[in-house]
Design goal:
By secondary structure, the chain is an alpha+beta fold. Helices cover 14% and strands 30% of the residues.
């Protein structure tokens, strides 16, 4: 695990916030389950996503914004990356009580991943060793998402917004 605060210059970060968090027209798509379909029995067990990249190709008209600003920065991280697997924005709605979602892994094989927080809230990501990484705007969490981890809702913002990256 590695946490990098103030990952992007303020102007680039603000652009992404305006594009995704503060844009009521940004196309998020509802998912009935956060981790596995059998979890749909809980009223709060849903979220919305926007898939920017998947299966070796862009899947969104907004991909160029992500590629230009964020993905180009990843090339300078320790280990870099060879192949991008998936990039998606996540919106976890506010709940009256903070909800920890079920533990999961993104892919079964070892790979690299990151969660980039677009807003500050009381939500967090819990890693396989039990440690919690708080959602802080412009924070990048680097970790191995083939190890079980989980997300949460938030209680003090309208939602928890982040961008999830997976790569080899």
């Amino acid at each position: 695990m590695n946490v990098i605060d103030n990952f992007l210059p303020e102007e680039e970060f603000k652009f992404l916030q305006d594009l995704i968090v503060f844009n009521d027209d940004f196309p998020f798509y509802l998912n009935d389950s956060i981790t596995y379909p059998e979890n749909t029995h809980k009223v709060w067990e849903w979220y919305a996503t926007h898939l920017f990249y998947n299966n070796d190709q862009p899947t969104s008209d907004f991909y160029n914004h992500i590629q230009t600003i964020l993905i180009s920065k990843f090339r300078n991280l320790p280990g870099g990356f060879r192949t991008l697997l998936r990039v998606k924005a996540n919106f976890y709605p506010s709940t009256p009580v903070l909800q920890e979602h079920k533990r999961h892994y993104d892919y079964e094989w070892s790979h690299s991943g990151a969660v980039f927080s677009l807003n500050t809230c009381d939500g967090f990501t819990r890693l396989s060793d039990g440690s919690k990484v708080d959602s802080v705007a412009n924070r990048l969490l680097l970790f191995d998402p083939s190890e079980k981890h989980n997300s949460t809702s938030t209680t003090n913002q309208r939602g928890r917004f982040n961008i999830n990256f997976n790569w080899l």
